[in-house]
Amino acid sequence: MGQRQKRRGALWIMSIEAREARQPWILLAPALTAICLLLIVPLMFIVVYSFWLKSAQGADTPGFFLDNWQEVLTDGFYRDILFNTLKISAITTIACALLGYPAAYFIARSKGNKLILLVLLMLPFWISYIIRTMSWINILGVSGALNSALIWLGIIGEPIQMLYNETTVILGLVHFLLPFMVLNIFVSLDGIDTNLEDAAASLGATRWQGFLQVTLPLSLPGLAAGGLLCFVLAAGTYITPVILGGPRDAMFANLVYEAIIRQLNWPLGSALSLLLLIVLGALVLIYNRYLGMAQLAKGLG
Amino acid sequence: MGWRLIRTYTVLVYLFMFLPIAVVVLLSFNANQFGSFPMTGLSTRWFEVLWNNDAIMRAFRTSIVLGLMTAVISTVLGVLASLALVRYAIPGRNLITTLLIAPILVPEVVLAVALLLFLNFLNIGKSFTLLLMGHVIFTLPFVILVVQARLVSIRRDVEEAALSLGASPMQTFFAITLPLLMPAVAAGGLFAFTISFDDITGTLFWKPGGIETVPTQIFSMLRNSISPEINALGTVIIVLTVGLPLMGAAIARKLSTRSGG
């Protein structure tokens, strides 16, 4: 009797343990299922789809054809736009760093109103991306603020078309991405002990030397995280070039949109989006190899 | 000297960020017939035009319904997953975390294409359902990041105290953990709503013909030229998107002071 009760007790504890072990998986199940079904499996699916062929009419032909990949990898048109996209993203990232670093430094080292300054800079981040992008038309357009001002000042007689070129695309991207850069640099600057700069100064370094040899190297992880975010987000946009760019300023994501939505060439569109994923994924992996994801998570949180 | 230079530079950066937005707000009150410079006076006529524009009002309703549903689903999924990740020792935690924030790491265009093609293969074409699923997927990581950060700071002891006093795990969650977690739940939900409301990249791929959200509606109106109504709409959105999070932050603060967190 006593024996049996003990055994039953042991069974009961085991079942609690089993339940304890099961519980986290029950909690995780909805989210993991969603991610797997709506992201992981679809990504694998377009890998398969990129080897199919578009047929003139009706359903695409399943199979293993290398045609799409051959077109994507050898056609000079796609290569030029890919390189141009990487160039635009690189210029955008550098511009964000040059604009964002001093601002982040100012916020991190200012006394008292640090939080207000930071929230203020994050405000545009909350304001609709499309509104912020189109707002440049109000400024640089033919009847925009700048042209009106120049005419009023008598500098020009006729309005100049300043919009719809590569520069305005970059301008729009910088305006969109700058808060990401500032936030990441701020997080890493804010974590640096200011005594280090004082120590450098007491050892005879000028402020500028102290900055170059102490603060700047210590803030590089934040700069790198911000840079990665800016670059990846810039390289994936297609709305900014459509609104602020000319007919010849298409970026790589515009090619994907053209292939999928306009030409309905889904196999080709799959190959194009995978190429973009591979190029940007390689960048993320290189970053992860040398700096790790922790810094990035810090900036996002 | 150097500090003053940095300050001036920072002021210029802030101007760069805010000037275009200020111009949108300014022009939306423009009396000029074409809504452009030079301004001829102040008027609210563009807001009336906006109010009477059926297409925009419909887009507004769609965006709000979509945003609310996205926020509710993402927050529920996100809170459950965060509980598992923070409160239990589970094997392969790093891999699971990476999986859960993967939608941020994949460029949105690629995510949009993959989801569209796969669900179409399953005979779920462009529809509101597809739109909703897409929005849930890319807002989920943000909710998880926000909720997880808060959950880590809630001490285990309070939950254990409730359990030792005889409360069931369910009761403990609803009476102790959830109230303490509320600010993060509200912040996560608001985050999800804002991201969903603002999204255009994925939405253009997923939306069926005939359904427009606010961003896609603005996008299609931009094709012709910038009409003053768009500036008025911009002003409304700016007030909403800046006002709502501020209000949310205020509510969150009130809730957290009341519950002593």
UniProtKB/TrEMBL annotation, chain A:
<keyword id="KW-0812">Transmembrane</keyword>
<keyword id="KW-1133">Transmembrane helix</keyword>
<feature type="transmembrane region" description="Helical">
    <location>
        <begin position="168"/>
        <end position="187"/>
    </location>
</feature>
<feature type="transmembrane region" description="Helical">
    <location>
        <begin position="88"/>
        <end position="108"/>
    </location>
</feature>
<keyword id="KW-0472">Membrane</keyword>
<feature type="transmembrane region" description="Helical">
    <location>
        <begin position="137"/>
        <end position="156"/>
    </location>
</feature>
<dbReference type="GO" id="GO:0055085">
    <property type="term" value="P:transmembrane transport"/>
</dbReference>
<keyword id="KW-0813">Transport</keyword>
<feature type="transmembrane region" description="Helical">
    <location>
        <begin position="264"/>
        <end position="287"/>
    </location>
</feature>
<feature type="transmembrane region" description="Helical">
    <location>
        <begin position="115"/>
        <end position="131"/>
    </location>
</feature>
<comment type="similarity">
    <text>Belongs to the binding-protein-dependent transport system permease family. CysTW subfamily.</text>
</comment>
<feature type="domain" description="ABC transmembrane type-1">
    <location>
        <begin position="82"/>
        <end position="287"/>
    </location>
</feature>
<dbReference type="InterPro" id="IPR000515">
    <property type="entry name" value="MetI-like"/>
</dbReference>
<protein>
    <submittedName>
        <fullName>ABC-type spermidine/putrescine transport system permease subunit I</fullName>
    </submittedName>
</protein>
<keyword id="KW-1003">Cell membrane</keyword>
<feature type="transmembrane region" description="Helical">
    <location>
        <begin position="223"/>
        <end position="244"/>
    </location>
</feature>
<dbReference type="InterPro" id="IPR035906">
    <property type="entry name" value="MetI-like_sf"/>
</dbReference>
<feature type="transmembrane region" description="Helical">
    <location>
        <begin position="25"/>
        <end position="52"/>
    </location>
</feature>
<dbReference type="GO" id="GO:0005886">
    <property type="term" value="C:plasma membrane"/>
</dbReference>
Automatic annotation (TrEMBL), chain B:
<comment type="similarity">
    <text>Belongs to the binding-protein-dependent transport system permease family. CysTW subfamily.</text>
</comment>
<feature type="transmembrane region" description="Helical">
    <location>
        <begin position="173"/>
        <end position="197"/>
    </location>
</feature>
<dbReference type="GO" id="GO:0005886">
    <property type="term" value="C:plasma membrane"/>
</dbReference>
<feature type="transmembrane region" description="Helical">
    <location>
        <begin position="98"/>
        <end position="122"/>
    </location>
</feature>
<keyword id="KW-0472">Membrane</keyword>
<dbReference type="Pfam" id="PF00528">
    <property type="entry name" value="BPD_transp_1"/>
</dbReference>
<keyword id="KW-0813">Transport</keyword>
<keyword id="KW-1003">Cell membrane</keyword>
<feature type="transmembrane region" description="Helical">
    <location>
        <begin position="12"/>
        <end position="31"/>
    </location>
</feature>
<feature type="transmembrane region" description="Helical">
    <location>
        <begin position="128"/>
        <end position="152"/>
    </location>
</feature>
<dbReference type="InterPro" id="IPR035906">
    <property type="entry name" value="MetI-like_sf"/>
</dbReference>
<keyword id="KW-1133">Transmembrane helix</keyword>
<dbReference type="GO" id="GO:0055085">
    <property type="term" value="P:transmembrane transport"/>
</dbReference>
<keyword id="KW-0812">Transmembrane</keyword>
<protein>
    <submittedName>
        <fullName>ABC-type spermidine/putrescine transport system permease subunit II</fullName>
    </submittedName>
</protein>
<dbReference type="InterPro" id="IPR000515">
    <property type="entry name" value="MetI-like"/>
</dbReference>
<feature type="transmembrane region" description="Helical">
    <location>
        <begin position="64"/>
        <end position="86"/>
    </location>
</feature>
<feature type="transmembrane region" description="Helical">
    <location>
        <begin position="230"/>
        <end position="252"/>
    </location>
</feature>
<dbReference type="InterPro" id="IPR051789">
    <property type="entry name" value="Bact_Polyamine_Transport"/>
</dbReference>
<feature type="domain" description="ABC transmembrane type-1">
    <location>
        <begin position="60"/>
        <end position="248"/>
    </location>
</feature>
